[in-house]
Amino acid sequence: MRIEGKAFTTIWLGDDAASIHVIDQTRLPHKFEIVTISNVAEAARAIADMQVRGAPLIGVTAAYGVALAMRADPSDGNLDKACAILAATRPTAVNLKWAIESTRRRLSGLPPNERGPVAYAHAAAIADEDVALCEAIGEHGLALIEAAAARKGGERVNILTHCNAGWLATVDWGTATAPIYKAHEKGVPLHVWVDETRPRNQGASLTAWELNQHGVPHTIVIDNAGGHLMQHGDVDLVIVGTDRTTASGDVCNKIGTYLKALAAKDNGVPFYVAAPSPSIDFTMDDGVAETPIETRSPQEITHITGRAADGRIETVCLVPLGSAAHNPAFDVTPARLVTGLITERGVIAASRDALARAFPDRAAKPQ
Ligand SMILES: CSC[C@H](O)[C@@H](O)C(=O)COP(=O)(O)O
């Protein structure tokens, strides 16, 4: 993707071929700052503090985190320690576990002196694969947007999205945004309703920022507006991402996604989930009962950060002193509410059979 005319991915290797660089997503949309990560503790902190976020990017960052640890000390003990530190950062996005386990499998049989270079190559391969998966999702999702445009006789297609399942959540393209970028590039008239996504406002701060960078027409709405827009025919399709989709097609995604799916069902609006295979957890079945839901700090609800008129970044309190706040960061949308999963292998039903048919290689194997 291009930021102010310059091509960027969201994570890249430093000139020393050891440290990695990422965009600090806690500073957007106000400041575009690049952070250097030089060791596994810094990688873990960047994930936990959400300087990097979004399921696919969390996975890639963790893979590089293991590589940084192996460069410092390639012993078995340090491999275990690095994997444990990274795995403890965020519980919900399965890409984290997937990337750590994939890296551990790749390294465990190797002599320690080979582990550093192999770990870097493996992290780079995971990053490259993420770009390819997102691009394939883009092509399959493009067909859905083109079909909607054809149904509307060429009138603009209104797409609603939640949180940031965009370029910033991945290495490139995004998951939910890949079809949008592909359609926009192809000249399909479209407009995106961007849910602000309280409490951290990934929609208003991140999705809006990247759509702006790419000239995609969009409008930010409060999280509660989606049902109203759907009732009035203002949403043609919903496309969201996923942090963990189970073998039966239940979709865990940013808190508030479930309510959008209910409103979409009630209004006959197609509800699609862009789901690259590393976000599918074939070891899990019942998403509501089994998905570990991250609870984040109440301060994300009670306080808000923004840019003051004089340009200073300020954090202010929104609530009465003494009120409690509870901050579950994800919810689960049952498969019955999902029109389809846009995977790298095509658009499929959110069902056990369809997932097993599309991914026979993954469905049979332990994660
Ligand atoms: C493609 S990333 C996964 C989701 O689609 C995204 O919306 C999301 O929930 C990210 O959560 P975050 O808590 O910002 O890491």
Could you give a short description of this structure?
The protein is an alpha/beta fold and 367 residues long. Helices cover 41% and strands 19% of the residues. The chain starts with a strand and ends with a helix.
Low-confidence stretches: none
Q: Roughly how much helix do the residues carry, as a percent range? A: 40-55%
The CATH first-level class of the largest domain comes to: Alpha Beta
Bound molecules: 5-S-methyl-1-O-phosphono-5-thio-D-ribulose
Q: Write the CATH architecture name of the largest domain.
A: 3-Layer(aba) Sandwich
Please state how the strands of the largest beta sheet are arranged side by side.
8-7-6-9-12-17-18
Q: Can you count the beta strands?
A: 18
CATH superfamily of the largest domain: Translation initiation factor eif-2b, domain 2
The average pLDDT value, as a whole number, equals 97
**Approximate strand percentage:** 15-25%
CA-CA gap between termini: 31 Å
**What general form does the structure show?**
globular
Structural class: alpha/beta
Major sheet size, sense and barrel closure: 7 strands, mixed
Pfam family, one: IF-2B
Protein name: Methylthioribose-1-phosphate isomerase
Enzyme class: isomerase
Function: Catalyzes the interconversion of methylthioribose-1-phosphate (MTR-1-P) into methylthioribulose-1-phosphate (MTRu-1-P).
